[in-house]
Write the structure tokens for this entry.
Amino acid sequence: MDDRIRVLQFTTMFEVGGTERQHLALLQGMDPTRFDVSVACLRRQGALLADVVACGVRVSEFPIRRLYGLHTMGQQLRFAEHLWAQRVDVVHTFGLYANVFALPAARLGSRAVTIGSVREQSSLLSPAKRHANRLALALADRVIVNAASVRDELVTSALQADRVCLIPNGVDTARYAAAAGSTGLRAELGWAPTAPIVAVVTRLAPQKGLEDFIDAAKRLEESHPEARFLVVGDACTMREGRALPGAYRTELERRATELGLGDRLHFTGRRADIPEILGDAAVSVLPSCSEALSNSLLESMAAGVALVATRVGDHARAVEDGRSGLLVPPHDAAALAHAVGRLLDEPLLRMRLGAEARRVACERYSLQRMVSDTEALYAELALRVRGRRLPQAA
């Protein structure tokens, strides 16, 4: 008899984003001798779908056109029947659309315990979406957040503190430590072999502060003419659970051209060699205006690259200013340029900050810690359903 805990993880789709990457990492790291994991989604599409399927999990689709309406209700009933048929113990939803669709459906007579998740500041949502998310989360037995700032916000909005679980993002620290600068990007872009690279790795979205990064690059043009700037990532917006190509990258490229940055600043688009790019960078920059806990911040720390980040969300909890990185106010291109310029001028400071950042990443933000904390929560809640001994960790 298969005594494993049956977990269903519900996500919107499989585009490349912070939540999706953390979900994939969790899938890849979970103990298959203790957990029988399946995945459900609103749209079976996205660049990460092949990686999810490669984990050997079942992927079920419940397509909807909007978060409300008769068609959506029909799909929610179908999902509730799916939970019964699969005898699911734990339902874990990832993000707004998954929360609003799946948490109410799981309450339609399902035996499963439910876990919602919030991985971003509510200020990024419209009032209607904030309200819908709050109503859905009220139905969850637990809510996982990736940042203390998000936890505090949820508790302030009347969610009981003992129902909110803080599990920070995790990063494969060994993968980033092993990566050395071998991207060949300098030769590809016609940059000098010794040109110091200042990189931003992020999804291209207005809240990521990329205009400030471009303005900071312009400010550094005279004082650091040898420096080159990279924006790594691409744009994608979400509407009613659909991924739509964004025009934001075009706007940013136009801004860089108007400032006369020429070949000093390059947009790479999506790249698979992020560890190598960070390993080749002199400085990594996280200029976000709003953030919970950036995956890119943790990846930069794990890579041991000197870091400049804005003081938003949990950045100040992860990075100690002057010890494991430099923190600047959001929306302040002058402060950003000053901090980057300081690191470019002081190689010993870069080395010291990078080494300490890597130590903190290994100690507090490892992928193994994120997976084991999530597994422990699954096991704790599954006891409510089963009421008997469950498979134990090896």
Remarks:
- The chain is about 45% helix and 20% strand.
- The domain at 173-364 is CATH 3.40.50.2000 (Rossmann fold).
